[in-house]
Amino acid sequence: MVLAWWGDPQNPLEPVNTNEVNGGAVLNMIFTGLVSYDPKTSKASNAMADSITSTDQQNWTVKLKPGWKFSDGTTVTASSYVDAWNYGALVTNKQVNASFFQYVQGYNDVAPATGAPTAQTMSGLKVVDDNTFTVALSQKFSTWPQTLGYSAYYPVPKSFFTDHAAYLNKPIGNGPYEIQTWTKSQKMQLRPFTGYSGPNKPKNGGIDLKVYTDTNAAYADLQSGNLDLDNGIPNSALKTIQTDLNGRYINEPAGIIQTISFPLYQPQWSTPGAAMVRQGISMAIDRATITKVVFTNTRTPATDWTSPVLGESGGYKSGLCGSVCNYDPAKAKQLIQQGGGIPGGQLTISYNADGPHKEWVDAVCNSINNATGDTKSCVGRPVGTFADFRNQITTKQMTGAFRTGWQMDYPLIQDFLQPVYTTGASSNDSHYTSAQFDSLVSQANANPDQAAAVGQFQTAEKLLINDLPAIPLWYQNGTAGWSSRITNVALDPFSVPVYSEITVK
What we know:
Elements: E1 2-6, H1 21-30, E2 35-37, E3 44-46, E4 49-54, E5 59-64, H2 78-89, H3 107-110, E6 125-129, E7 132-136, H4 144-147, H5 159-162, H6 164-169, E8 177-183, E9 187-192, E10 207-211, H7 215-224, E11 229-230, H8 241-244, E12 249-261, H9 274-283, H10 287-293, E13 299-301, H11 329-338, E14 347-352, H12 358-372, E15 378-383, H13 386-394, E16 401-407, H14 413-421, H15 435-446, H16 450-467, E17 470-482, E18 486-487, E19 503-504
């Protein structure tokens, strides 16, 4: 068995109710979706889908490969997908990723902006037979098939509905692993699912995920041989990790951006001058020094809201953010003053204390304090655990700034913008809203010309420069260290270990 680092997921492991990395890592081990992403290139290809076709890029037919099973022995059918998607979209089920179904016809009936739903299922989903279903979208969406490897689109077994409590206690999927035991806040044991029909069958006897609330404790366990895989490396270890682990260390670009978001639902952050204050705060952050000193060059200063992993053809645009992302302490101080000053006189930056964040938050605050000339203008605000921290964000309890990050769900610029910044989107933590931004994203989705669509997405992205619901900080590399017991360790472009490929010596 491989003993690996883990953090408690925020929510129960329902596919449409998971939008953070700890829960996502498990879902991707116990489920296989219609498509999957190559662990080296992130390119999408059919997995459980035999074909996903359309003559007009709006009405799609999905055919499944027959014979796939869930780990409870039941068969995966077209209804496993349609029922899962309808459940996920229905507003009364309160699933955080419900908005991923917003382009399916009938979504507004099951998830109205106000009031009770007028339907229980989306009219755009139809089961044709056990291995075929159709999806009618409300508009053309040329890259829709490429999005379907994300966990929100996973199927669920019938027991998800007939005994939901049992499912939540021990989730059942159709992927390469199945959950054997799960003691919440302590450990999860995953073992190879012998009935798995996909190609990436595990090359190990299983993965044991151990929950750590202190990244330094996890790293100490790794060094002493009490942990095999650590992909929550503390910043304090980055300077010595190569020698500490005799080279058993990965540091490579990943589809991740780290940001600082603001609660625009709070009156003090929605005034006409507040956007100018946010711009000033951004210009007060010395990204180059922080990424070098704190992160030992495992981060790169961000100049847009996407990731270099996309490449220019995929939507990454170096320098798109312009001067707002450049360190200019004099201009920063001027803008903060012109905007009416930091609300309340002090900026707090909240973060989860069980992750490696204190050092960089302190460094960011020191940079802001130096620019303003006030040693108390910014302070860090630790929150005990990741789950508690995320719950404070999703229940709109934040009054100051807070750390946010985005790990791509699929390799499209659309994924860096739509789920994070469109009105009411699943990961719109700042609750930013712009009708113009929403419209441009919808137009880009409908554009069959991918190059032209990328340009439309970037036009939308430029609106974020002035509104600045979130400050781009840096692009994050994927990092991991491992023990001498295991080999074949790799990270995918999402920075998640390719668990199925790990072998025990």
